[in-house]
Please model this.
Amino acid sequence: QVQLVESGGGSVQSGGSLRLSCAASGYTYSSKCMGWFRQAPGKEREGVAGLDSDGTTNYADSVKGRFTISQDNAKNTLYLQMNSLKPEDTAMYYCVARVSACTYGSRWFSLVAYYGMDYWGKGTLVTISS
Model:
């Protein structure tokens, strides 16, 4: 049984930082792809950052330059380092994974990736105050 468990969420002020972690069990990243989505109150889920199977990192325009996605294969853990946080970043953040390889590129931020994900974590809440 594949499980993705996020952690690291919390409440910080604008300009602060958080690092989210996603521990995967029953799933080995290998050449498969993983990423992060988020859903703000009253809004649709959107792709935040995606790690393609070839190692390419992809970021939504809204977080580019502030967020960094990375992965530790040995620990089978995905990370999202979030710096210079803004109130607009307030959302539930979800770790996602696909069983097969992907080269989504900018499609991480379209429905292609949204529907292409095989596993979703339960989410970790990030709240940014002004």
The mean pLDDT is 94.
